[in-house]
Write a structure and sequence with these properties.
The protein is of the alpha/beta class. It contains 37 helices and 24 strands. The strands form five sheets. The protein has a seven-stranded parallel beta sheet. A seven-stranded parallel beta sheet has the order 20-21-19-22-23-18-24, with helices on both faces. A six-stranded mixed beta sheet has the order 1-4-5-6-7-8, sandwiched between helices. Helix 25 crosses helix 27 and helix 34 packs across helix 35. The longest helix has 23 residues. It is globular. The two termini are 60 Å apart. It is an enzyme of class 3 (hydrolase).
């Protein structure tokens, strides 16, 4: 009962927010309507009479209303088509025949004056027919007796969220009573903390927030919902959406679709419209890649075409690639008919259309303006909207863009881009930006807003560098011998060196191709494939695209791949296909001609790739499909081609589209696996060129996987520390006894339980992003155990706490916990790779300063040296500074030997390696300065720990810092001696032992000085 009251309270709050905007409240049970009907008959009849003075006298108003109701109730062709027909009628585009047989358009809604309409909001609106279960809508917003908006709410304190509300609208209400939704403009789902709107029946990943780019990005919770209600449910917005932005594609060739705008699309479309009406000549729209710029162009074109003040404009949708709006061209033909939409196939056809003064929409490419001549059309109501405006757009008169502007000298130009360019060759801001616009940008939709809105997902950069060794001297010797044998002169030798010394030779090496393709297959089958995601592979050139495709298909038929396919049970086989540009000219390489795809073949290939169950899982490309190809189900892109600037940005955003699989998997991030080492270039690519102060900060949507892994491991360690005093607890044993023991401990320590809950929620959000990485494999049992403990806490908590935790945890993470998630090794890590974080780089610099005094700082300007190189330098320092026959030399050499045998697999191992190497290097320096003293490899641990405790001592500390430090040193040393042969047990034991000492002295093993103490121990004690 409490839940229902809370939902009713939130309903009432939405009603209160709606009243100042012009809505009047009428209880659902008091509406003058039949519960079997979707229309309030009397209100519709009154509006028809009121809005059509001088015309309605020739009609029978009741007959008009009955005709409208018949249209509302007709759903035989499906809800989308029925919705299109009703909204067409509501826009005043259907004519009615009067008593004399004359046809007239009638106004059903006044769009110019929203307040003239009858605006009602009602709660608990019932719909029922005999033989069906009665349903009751939480809120309905009526305009002139027509239900334009349906709202379903959930309590802010229940475990159900907005997604559950949206699914009820889709799967229950719109399915059982579709005629109630034929007048629907959009539906709304909210749980009081979040609000989303969408077309009834549309997948939930297409439901979007409705905000304003002028508002604070960090608005959240009830404040965010309140603001969304003010913006979205304002009568002017509802009617604007109905009149101008609810568009359809029912022209055939696929499933019927209804398009609703995201709020930045709506804002930008209105700004373009206003700029045209004001006589402005240009404008730059800068929206994050993947947030819907092509559809924005469609909305803006529709708005301009519908306004008589634009005097029947010609709107050119321009791209540098063919078939820019193939996926949305049906919108125009659905709304206006074929006569208003043109796709010229030749340059001559384009010139004829413009010379003949054709009106409507022309979809074409910039290439068709080549040699178009000057003054092809001098009309000023030609509006050119350029997709990907940073490409092929130049101010040079001899460029394609220059020829287009010469042909259309008075046209207005609007550029859409996610990557504006400002360099010596191109300046997107100067070319499209009006000087009067702030920063020369008419409208901006940033990366951060796009991610906060869920319009796109973040992209993780996973470096998989491919190392190789080149013996320069042997190579040169063999080449010289070869050249001598064939008596090559110097020019010939130079020609061969240039030809085969290029990067292509390295990329074309068969061993490298095999290594990269094997890694791709392993990585894909371990993660993306299991979630139904597809992949792109970007190669250095066309020939390599073919070679990679062949190798991938070979590996995909292997035993390991077959085992994964059998385990998942979706396909008997999966495949890769190549998609590269192959011309039909005589000069084309004959070896490439078999890979030329016709337009129909390419569209079929794309369709198969976009189909979740189709076995086409890889598209291998080199340039095509890296931009302008919208594939929401693409989860991973394997990048093996050097790219820079906006080309790199465009490529890495291929995976940032939102998607929900047919089985319910929610794509929360995209992955770019980088085989080149483009991390720094990525950061340069995502810098905002209009914001100099942002240089070096990146765009905020690319995350390094190693950083997430490091955060996961640090969070896991903090949770381990919390349970250090639970007797006989083994985190590798996920069973009832372990869960019970941990819960008993948390019940007795509520402050610790609060810290555990907070850290576990962070851990659970990180896990789906890092679960396939080898570095977290050893944590999976402990993670599952923590999940079970959290779940029991979750079930015992109050409704309010449960809601908060569920919202943060997310249904996907709960599913992962319940299924005892498995993690799969994807990459064979090289033994001596050094993956360094900031701390590791600092230690490396100090180490290099010791072993190479006065030399170049190797950690600053180039790739960090390998472990072997570091050890060689330490050994050289030892040989130089310590007597070779001395006891000191023998002891230090033995420590170097032990360090050389160490296997480095991840960042923590590299950090431990460097810490030990630094201690050895310092000991070598000390040994050289004090030859008569014994070898001391470790610092004065007790002294350092005393200083740490003193610096962070809490008020009321009664024990002497030195005494506490000595006890910690003894306990840690003893623990290390007991678990010398098990690294995991050693690390856990040390943390538990340290926490136990803190508790004996009434100090919390959370925060300072505990954190700094553990950090010091991990850096200076935990050495194999």
């Amino acid at each position: 009962m409490a839940k229902g009251i809370q939902e009713r309270e939130f309903q009432n709050l939405m009603i209160q927010w709606s009243l100042p905007m012009g809505w009047r409240f009428t209880e659902g049970r008091r509406l003058p309507r039949e519960t079997t009907q979707a229309v309030v008959y009397g209100q519709l009849r009154d509006a028809i009479v009121r809005l059509n003075p001088g015309v309605i006298d020739g009609f029978d108003p009741d007959a008009v209303v009955e005709e409208i109701i018949a249209t509302v109730n007709a759903v035989e062709g499906g809800l989308v088509r029925a919705n299109e027909q009703v909204l067409h009628l509501l826009r005043g585009r259907k004519e009615f025949r009067d008593a004399d047989g004359v046809w007239h358009p009638l106004m059903v809604i006044d769009f110019e004056h929203p307040a003239v309409n009858t605006l009602i909001v009602s709660d608990e609106v019932t719909i029922t027919v005999p033989g069906k279960t009665s349903r009751r809508f939480d809120l309905v917003y009526w305009v002139n007796g027509l239900p334009l908006v349906v709202v379903e709410v959930k309590s802010p304190t229940s475990k159900s969220g907005w997604v559950d509300a949206a699914r009820e609208i889709n799967d229950v209400y719109a399915t059982e009573y579709p005629w109630f939704f034929t007048p629907n403009v959009f539906a709304v789902a909210s749980d009081g903390l979040k609000l989303r709107f969408g077309a009834a029946g549309a997948p939930t990943n297409l439901w979007q927030p409705f905000r304003s780019t002028a508002d604070d990005e960090n608005l959240s919770g009830q404040n965010d919902v309140h603001r969304s209600v003010e913006l979205l449910l304002n009568p002017a917005t509802v009617l604007d959406m109905l009149a101008n932005f609810a568009l359809f594609n029912t022209s055939g060739g696929g499933a019927d679709k209804k398009y609703l705008p995201r709020y930045p699309q709506m804002e930008a479309a209105h700004l373009i419209h206003e700029r045209v009406l004001d006589g402005g000549a240009k404008g730059l729209i800068w929206h994050h890649q993947g947030s819907g710029k092509t559809l924005l162009m469609v909305f803006a074109a529709s708005l301009l075409l519908a306004d008589t003040r634009t005097e029947s404009p010609t709107i050119i949708l321009l791209s540098d690639r063919t078939q820019l709006v193939r996926q949305t061209s049906g919108v125009f033909t659905s709304a206006m008919g074929d006569a208003y939409f043109h796709q010229p196939t030749t340059s001559q056809e384009l010139r004829s259309l413009l010379a003949d003064d054709v009106r409507g929409v022309i979809s074409t490419t910039v290439h068709k303006f080549a040699n178009a001549g000057k003054n092809l059309s001098r009309r000023d109501n030609i509006i050119v909207m350029v997709d990907e405006a940073h490409r092929t757009q130049s101010s040079r008169s001899d460029s394609l863009a220059g020829q287009m502007r010469a042909a259309l000298p008075r046209a207005k130009f609007f550029g859409m881009t996610g990557t504006p360019v400002r360099n010596l060759a191109t300046d997107t801001f100067a070319l499209f930006g009006a000087e009067s616009d702030p920063g020369r940008v008419l409208h901006r939709y940033s990366v951060s807003r796009s991610l906060l809105d869920g319009a796109t997902v973040p992209v993780m950069l996973a470096p998989h560098p491919v190392s190789f060794i080149v013996d320069d001297q042997a190579l040169q010797q063999e080449f010289d011998q070869f050249a001598d044998e064939f008596d090559l002169d110097d020019p010939d030798r130079e020609t061969l060196s240039r030809k085969f010394g290029r990067l292509t030779s390295v990329f074309s090496n068969p061993e490298r191709i095999h290594a990269v393709c094997q890694d791709i297959v392993n990585h894909y089958l371990a993660g993306a494939y299991r979630n139904g995601l597809k992949a792109q592979v970007v190669t250095y050139n066309r020939e390599l695209a073919v070679a990679y495709t062949d190798k991938l298909n070979e590996l995909l038929t292997g035993f390991e791949a077959s085992q994964v396919l059998a385990e998942v049970g979706k396909h008997d086989r999966i495949a890769a296909e190549v998609n590269v540009s192959v011309s039909n000219s005589k000069g084309e390489d004959p070896a490439m001609r078999p890979f030329r795809l016709s337009e129909a073949e390419e569209e079929e290939q794309k369709r198969r790739f976009l189909t979740p169950d189709d076995p086409l899982c890889f598209l291998v490309v080199t340039a095509k499909l890296m931009t302008g190809f919208d594939a929401p189900n693409e989860g991973v892109l394997y990048l093996d081609k050097p790219l820079k600037a906006h080309n790199l940005f465009q490529t890495i955003t291929r995976t940032n589209r939102t998607w929900i699989s047919p089985s319910g998997f929610v794509k929360t991030s995209g992955v770019v696996v980088d085989y080149i080492g483009l991390a720094e270039e990525v950061q340069r690519a995502v810098v905002d060129p209009s914001s100099p102060e942002a240089a070096g900060k990146g765009g905020g949507f690319v995350t390094n996987l190693s950083e997430l892994v490091a955060e996961f491991r640090a969070t896991f360690a903090r949770i381990e520390d919390l349970f250090a005093d639970v007797d006989d607890l083994d985190l590798a044993v996920h069973g009832y006894e372990s869960v019970r023991a941990m819960n008993v401990f948390l019940d007795a320590n509520p402050e610790v339980a609060e810290v555990f809950s907070r850290d576990y929620r962070l851990l659970a959000r990180l896990y789906p992003l890092v679960s396939t990485d080898k570095r977290v494999a050893k944590y999976q049992d402990g993670f599952a155990l923590f999940g079970s403990v959290y779940t029991t806490l979750f079930k015992r908590s109050s409704d309010e706490e449960r809601k908060e935790r569920l919202a943060e945890l997310g249904p996907m993470v709960l599913e992962i916990i319940n299924a005892h998630v498995h993690s799969f090794s994807a990459v064979a890590v090289k033994e001596e790779s050094l993956v360094l974080d900031a701390q590791g780089i600092a230690i490396l610099k100090e180490l290099m300063a010791i072993v190479r005094p006065g030399g170049k700082d190797d950690g600053a300007d180039k790739t960090p040296p390998s472990a072997a190189e570091i050890l060689d330098r330490i050994k050289a320092a030892l040989d130089k500074g310590v007597e070779p026959e001395s006891v000191k030399y023998t002891a230090l050499a033995e420590r170097i030997k032990l360090l050389r045998d160490r296997i480095i697999q991840d960042a923590q191992d590299a950090l431990d390696f460097l810490s030990e190497a630094l201690r050895i290097a310092r000991a070598i320096v000390d040994a050289g300065k004090r030859p008569d003293e014994a070898v001391v490899l470790d610092d004065d641990h007790v002294g350092v720990l005393s200083r740490i405790i003193h610096d962070h001592a809490p008020s009321g500390l009664t024990v002497t810092e030195r005494n506490l430090a000595e006890e910690i040193d003894q306990v840690v040393t003893s623990t290390l001696a007991r678990s010398w042969d098990n690294a995991d047990a050693r690390n856990r034991g040390v943390r538990r032992a340290t926490a136990a000492v803190f508790r004996r002295y009434m100090l919390k093993p959370v925060g300072e000085p505990y954190d700094s103490t553990v950090a010091y121990i991990e850096a200076h004690y935990l050495v194999d």
